[in-house]
Every structure is written in C-alpha cells, then in structure tokens.
Amino acid sequence: MSARANILRSSAAHAILIAYTILALYPVFLIVINSMKSRRAIFNDPLALPTRQSFDLVGFQTVLEQGNFLLYFQNSLIVTVASLFFALLFGAMAAFALAEYRFRGNLLMGLYLALGIMIPIRLGTVAILEMMVAANLVNTHWALILVYTANGLPLAVFILSEFMRQVSDDLKNAARIDGLSEYRIFFTIALPLVRPALATVAVFTMIPIWNDLWFPLILAPGESTKTLTLGSQIFLGQYVTNWNAVLAALTLAIFPVVVLYLIFSRQLIRGITRGAVK
Amino acid sequence: MTIRKTLSLTTAFALCATGVFAQDVTLTIESWRNDDITIWRNQIIPAFEAAHPGIRLDFQPTAPAQYNSALNSKLDAGTAGDIVTCRAFDASLQLFERGQLSDLTDLPGMANYSDVAKSAWSTDDGSQTFCVPLASVIHGFIYNVDIFNELGLEVPATEDEFFAVLDAIQEEGSYIPMAMGINDQWEAATMGFANIGVNFWRGEEGRAALIAGESRLTDEEWVAPFRQLARWSQYLGRGYESQSYPDSQNLFTLGRAAIYPSGSWEIAGFREQADFEMGAFPPPVPAGTEGCYISDHTDMGIGLNAASPNQEAGRIFLDWLTGAEASTLFANAIPGFFPLSSAEVTLDDPLAEEFLSWRGQCESTIRPFHQIVSRGTPNLSNESWTASANVMRGTWTPEEAGEALQAGLSSWYAPHQ
Amino acid sequence: MSRSRATRRPIRWHIAVFLAPALIVYTAIMIIPLFGTLNLSLFTRGQGNTREFVGLANFVTLFTDPRWSGAFWNATWNNLWFFIIHMLVQNPIGIALAAILSSPRLRFAAFYRTAIFIPAILSFVIVGFVWRLILSPLWGVAPNMMDAIGLGNWFAPWLGQESSALTTLALISVWQFVGIPMMLIYAALLSIPDEVLEAAEMDGITGASQFWKIKLPLILPTIGIISILTFVGNFNAFDLIYVAQGALAGPNYSTDILGSFLFRTFFGFQLQLGDPHMGATVATVMFFIILAGVSLYLFGIQTRLRRYQF
Fold first, then answer.
1. What is the CATH number assigned to the segment(s) B14-136+297-360?
2. What residue ranges of chain B are covered by domains with CATH 3.40.190.10?
3. Taking phi first (over 0 means left), then psi (-120 to 50 degrees means alpha), and beta for anything else, what does residue C48 get?
4. Distance (Å) from the C-alpha of residue C209 to the closest C-alpha of chain A?
5. Which of A136, A236, B69, C290 would be a feasible disulfide site paired with C267, CB 3.0-4.6 Å?
C-alpha cells in the first residue's frame, strides 16, 4: 500500500468523523450559546454567538435563585455513583456465575435476570413506594439507590455475561491449578479483563439514572434529597415560556453529566488499552 | 391497598427532614402550578402564616404533565402532601370516591360559592363538595394594541369583522395575523374550539343538551365551530403544523403576531414578557346570533388529603382561602385566574379587569366536554384535541370531525346510544 | 449434563454467592412490584374501592374492541417502523463509525469517540427541546440553513405532518443513541488480538476486505447484543414522544408507539383517568412481545453464535 493511499484514507476517515462530530455537538452548542443571550436575541438570530449587546445571564440568575443547586448536584452525584457501584458489582458477579459455571437452570436464570429490561420499572411505582414507606426509606438516598441498582442490574448482567464468555478458559484453569479460589479468579482475572465492558455498562447505566425525573419525584422529593434533574424540572414543564430560564437550566443540566462522562471515558480508554490481552 | 398505618412515621420523618419544630404543624401543598412558586412563597404563605402562627405552609409544585400520575401514586402509598390542588371534575371526583379527599361540604366558607362554582368539585347530585373552588379562567383573544393602532384596525365584535381584521393584517404583510400552532393539539381544542364554540351552541344550553343526549355532535352548532377553525389555518404562521405552544406565546409577546387566541391565564406571563400594550376581546359573535357567551371555566380547586394527620389545620387553611382577603390576594398575585368566591374583589390589572368585565355582558359557561361526557373510553375531551388539530391541519373536514367525535361518544354514553 | 453427575458433585456455594446479591435486590425491587402490576390485568375496577377478577376479559377487549385494537395495532406498527429505522440507520452508522475509529494510528480518536457519544448522555427533555427548536419553522435554524444551501423549498414542518412525524422522531432518536452501538462495537473491535490481524495481513487480507472477512465475524456476538438491546429499547421507548409530541402522540396518533400508548392508558392524561387494569393489560402484551424477541435471541441465536476466546 502506497503512502499516498494511506494519507487519502486517513483524511477520508477524519472528514467523516469531523462531519459526524459536528452533527452530534451542534445542537448542544446551540443550547449553550443561546442560554447566554437575551430573549429577543434568541428568537431573532438563534444561530448567532452572544455578542456584547445580546449577552445576558438572566436565565442563570432565575434558575439559581430557585434552590440550592450545589446540594442538588451533590445528591445526584451520591445517588448516581452509589447505584452504579452496586449495579456493576452485583451485575458482574451474577454475569460471571452465568458465564463461567454450568449448572441446572443457567439459561433460565439468565432469562429471569433479563426480564427486567422488558417492562418499564415505572409501572411498579405504587408497590415500590409502599415498600419504601414500610422500610422508612422515603426521602433518603437509599430509596433511589436501591431502585436504580435493581433497574440497572438486568442490562449489566445481559451485557457483561456476553463479555465474560470471551475471557480465556486457559487463564482461569491455570489459576485454578495454582489453587486460587473462585472469588480470587473473579476479582483478579475476570473483572480486570472485562474492564472495557464494565466502563461501557457504567456509562449506559449512569445516563438514565442521572436524567431520571420520576423516582426522585415520587421517592425523594424532600429538599434535602432533591436531585439536580428534579430541582430544575420546574423550568422544564411543557407550559413554561421563559426560554432564558429553560436554556440556562438545560445548560446547567448538561455540564455535570458531560464532566462525569469524561471521567468515565478516560477510565474507559485506560480500561480498553490495558484490559485487552494481546 | 393503601398503607396508612405508616403514615405518621413518614410525616414525622418529613418533619425532621425539613427541620421544623415539633409544636408547629406544617402543611405540604401539592400543586401543578410551578409557575406560581414565587407568588406562593413571597405573598400567599407569609400572609397566611402571619394570621395563623403555629401553622406553616410548604408549597411543593410538580410539573403539570406529571402532576396527576405523581399525585395518584403518592396518595395510594400514603406519602402525598396534606393539601391537594384539585383538577376540575372527574379526576378529583374519583379521588373523593376512593376516600382520598376529605368531605368539605360543611366548611363554613363554602357559603361564599355558587352552585355553578362548586359543580366542578361536587358529587353528581351536588350533595357533597370536596374542594374549595379556587379559580376560573376566561377564554378570549388577546391582541397587540400597538399593531392595531399602526394598521388602523378596530376591535372586531362579529365574526365577519373578525375575518376582515385578519384579512387586513395579512394584506399589509408585516405581521402574522394570528399566533397559534397545532403541534401540541390542545390549543386547537381549548383556545380554538371551546373558545369560539360557545356562541354557536349557546353556552350552558348546548352543553346541557349534549349531556342529556338531545343534541348530537354532528349537529350544526357543534360542526360550525370546526368550520371556522378550518378557516383560521390560512392566517397562521408558516409551518403552524409544528408550531408548539411556547412558540406561539413567544411569537405574540415578541410583537410578531397581532392576535393571540387564548385565555386569561396568560396574563401574568405576558405582563413579564411583552413590552407593548395588550387588549382583549371576547369571541366574536356569528351573524344572526343574539346575545353572547364566554367560556368561564372552573379550572382549579384545592382540597384536603383524607389521610393527612393535620385535618384541623388543613381546614383552617382552606377556610382562610374562602375569605375576601385571600381571594383579593390571589386575584391580584395571579391575574387571569379569577376567584370564584362571591366575596367582593378588586383587580389592579386592566387586562384582567377587561376579561372579568365580560361576565357582566355575556353568559358564562364552562368547557363543553369536561363534565360527565368525558367519563368513558374513548375520552371525548382528548379526542376533541386530535379532531380540532386535524381540522386545522386540513386532514379532516369539519363534518368528519363531528362524526368521529359523535361515534366515540355513542360507543359508551347511554343517552347517545 | 446427566443428573447422576450433578448430584455427585459437591454443592458449589460460590455460584450462590455470586448470584445472591443481584437476585435479592432485583427480585425484591423489580420483579415483585412489576408482576404485582401485571397481575392487575386480570382484574377490573368494581364498585367503590374493590376489584373484580375477570380472567382474560381485558385482553379480549384489547384485541376485539375496535377502538382498543385499532389504537393497539397503530402503536405496534408505528413501533415496528421506529425499530426498523434504528436497525437500518443507527446500527450501520454505529458500526461504521466504530470501524473508522478503531483503525490503527488514527489521531484524535478519543476526542471523536467522546464527542459522538455526548448526545446519548443528554436527557430526553434536552433532546426534545433542542430538536423542536431546530426544526421549528419560526425560529428558523433548519429552514435558514436549508435556505443558505438552496434547499429552502424542501423544508417542511416535519414534526407536524402525519406522514413524516414518526420518521423524524425516529431519526432524532437515532441521532441521540448512535453512540451506544458505536461504543460496544468499538470495545469489541479493540479486543481482537493483533496476532489475528497480523496473520490476516500476511495472507494479504487488508483494508475493507479485512473488515468484512475477519473483524465482522469476530464481532457478530456484539452485533447480536446491540440488535436485541435496540429491540428492547425501542419497544420500551416513550419519553421522546412525550417530550416532543405530548401524551396524545400527535398529529392524529401518528407517533403513538407502545410505550406512549401504555403510559397514557395506565396513568391517564388530562380528563382521561388512568386505568391501571387496561394499562397492565397493554403492559403484559408488550412484555410478551419483548419476551418473544429476547427468547428468540437467547435460545435461537446466542447459543448458536460462535465465540472466540482471546
């Protein structure tokens, strides 16, 4: 292959990727620039960058006056990280058991654990709420963490068991001959090897948790446990006309989750490059 | 189904969580009016708490789209707030029948309300009332006075004058004649059909006839409003098919459209956003009609969660709401939501005053499909959203819309079978 | 595995330990509440606060009453179309992007991958709002841009037309979620050992033919996962419809999919009161549709896929 063809191919690759990146980011960019403009400027020229005349932070002012957003952010973070931790840990353990051991009912167990992705958990709201009331967990972080962990498990098991099946038997059998326990094999061999998949599942699981409005509203609407999404929902109802506030609330909602994603994404790269056995 | 035994525990927990001292009673208020959050916190709550030490209020609104489902779930599980803002008619009636709302028939302040005002929150025979009627909204058209002056237009009183004004604005070409879209569908039904239709079916008379099964939706008085809606389409902005409700509001308040078919609930928001003078006129009267009608719709009530441990305090608060002081406070804090109490109220906002003045000139009625006829499947009110939007989109003829609605109603409602 | 062999083995407690935490949390918080809800489909509301057992009567209503069955089949076909668009547009684009991204020595790969995934982390509220803004005929982001490149006449209020609204929403959803197949395929492509690729290159298999002949067969299990996840996700979707078109899934129910139909029935909307019994009936039928798809995958495809351990 000539060097010239190589350069051609790589510029074609870059052209496609750049085009798609613009398509992916442009709408987000629109929200962010318009959140910093005056109302008239938003409608007169939505594509323009904020200028000295049109620059206006009134939307952010309105939003920040409405509540304790730092606390809301902290609540969202606690709930999301804790739910992720449990869903990934429990999910990986179950996935390992399903992928590694042959036992009666293995396939049925896999199907059972996958049932949860077939029905929206919201339908169980009343029963879940009654359970949380009985356990005295309403208005605590635990109520949300338990629900999200349960809700995240089916997908985690489903994806991770597929990846666990690709972990080399030779490695595990060698470890068994060396006398390692099954638990050690799971934690020191299997888990590190599926790190790319773990990071991917983490990202998938994190998004709906962070963006969920329903369970915080039902299970933890109290001021001390309010999540960021719930805290900003008063600007996101369908009857709200104040676009400055709406755009500011959206911008504030985008940033933390992007930052969280970037953190995981770096883990992801590290996981992928180190985890792949080559 | 419901778990009430653990309720006291939950309440105790909620009190700890909000850091309130034990001797005070805190009443949590459930509402869908998230737009009013600052008004409650800065005006209404302080006024009540000053008069009633020992009772505190906590206003906790939910976005309107989730209000009903969230409230029902919380009531079923016993975690709902003490005070519940009531949707009109069947949604609240169902809560009362399930024992989730307290009976307020003997609340002293109930004497301040007419039977019509109470009808939205009473049992069908009118013997029990379970929410205090809080506010009604009046339909009409808001217009941009500056544009009318600039183009030398007169406020239309009849249907012919109305279309003449629209033609004139369209011919001149600088402004969109009317700000309205059909993407969200409900505007077509609420601000279109229910708004202008009252003059055709003659208000309460036509509404009662429909409930009794004496008039059918394929009759002229129900089809004619659709016919007018179909004519509206040509006066709307480009791409009105995908124009949303906030789009329309912004189009009007930015001064790009001359007329906004709407209701009084817009007043507070428009005051903040529009920098031109606004006027209002009631639905124009079709040729050959005598008298006029307006849709003066009972929209919001407020009741007491039957499972609340604070029944006494709750009744004190609700009774306070029925009085002249609270009515005046509400009417002026949220202009456009008109008190239903017969207590004397003065309004500061001229636009709100204009809407309210129609009560003296025209006969009041409520939206036609809200009582009784939307109790089955398919739901007549929701079907009317789709039908009105289809007519304005031009995919259904007015006659087809009437037939579709009638077929739906006949499928379950005995007086129409 | 024969029974006699199984009984001879010592009880492998570690399997139970691995499965227990997931099973307990999942069963208590998801399965019991959800099946309690599905159980409602066998009842109907009686007088006052009671409920009556009616067997399968609700299912008969759903499938034979012309109004219910009309709405149900409308939602089902719409949902199928929604799924087809995802399979035809989202997944091929995702695979193509992942293939380009995984080419060796590509600079800025991390940046591209991160950027393209960002729409997937946004909430539906944001996605619905921004696309309504872009496609709005009034504020003119899309019409202005199309005017600028001479396509102004091609602009139409897509979300407001019965013929185009569902496809438009499906494409918005594709825009949002294309990062998910991309990431999964990318992870799978990266875990193909270099030796395999080097061996292929020795045999003169490079470039596109390397992708088709070597890589694609190796990532087939992942493509299987993606297909089934897309299927499950699409048949559970409803948020985007709610945010962009409202609960009545306008215009004229042309964007109604099973999820929006279910939530409107279960929780009610405006004057239409929630009907947990019919809602649970719809949910049960949806559940069986999805279960059929997943079982087909688990028993029919997954067990037959050839996997390569590295």
1. 3.40.190.10
2. 14-136+297-360, 138-296+366-416
3. left
4. 14
5. B69
Residue B282 pLDDT greater than 50, yes or no: yes
Q: Do C287 and A186 touch (CB under 8 A)?
A: no
Inspect the interface and report whether the beta carbons of B60 and A221 lie closer than 8 Å. yes
ipTM score here?
Answer: 0.83
**CATH class assigned to B138-296+366-416:** alpha beta
Indicate yes or no: CB of B34 within 8 angstroms of CB of A234. yes
Answer yes or no: do B381 and C274 touch at CB < 8 A: no
Note down the domain range covering A111. Answer: 63-275
- Assess whether A118 and A212 both reside in one domain: yes
Q: Looking at residue A268, what is its pLDDT?
A: 64
Say if CB A86 and CB C25 are below 8 A apart: yes
- The answer to whether residues A172 and A156 belong to one domain is yes
Q: Are B129 and B105 in contact (CB under 8 A)?
A: yes
DSSP B305: B
Residue B20 has pLDDT above 60, yes or no: no
Best mutation site among A238, A243, A244, A246 for testing chain B: the one with the most B CBs within 10 Å? A238
Backbone angles phi, psi at B158, to 5 degrees: -115, 165
Q: Verify that A131 and A1 share a domain, yes or no.
A: no
Q: Tell me the pLDDT tens digit for each residue of A227-269.
A: 887 877 666 654 466 778 888 888 887 887 788 788 777 766 6
In chain C, the domains with their CATH numbers are 14-55 (no CATH), 69-302 (1.10.3720.10)
Q: How is residue B411 annotated by DSSP?
A: T
Pull the structure tokens for residue C104.
Answer: 């060796």
Banded model confidence at residue A2, pLDDT cuts 50, 70, 90: low
Whole-Å CA distances, C93 to C89, C169, C223: 6, 17, 12
Which H helix or E strand runs over B178? strand B176-178
- From chain C, the residues in CB contact with A117 under 8 A are 232, 236, 290, 294
Are the Cβ atoms of C122 and A159 closer than 8 angstroms?
no
Chain A contact set for C25 (CB, 8 A): 86, 90, 146, 149-150, 153
> pLDDT digit string (tens) for C86-110?
999 999 999 999 999 988 778 888 8
Give the length of chain C. 310
Cβ of residue B184 closer than 8 Å to a chain A Cβ: yes
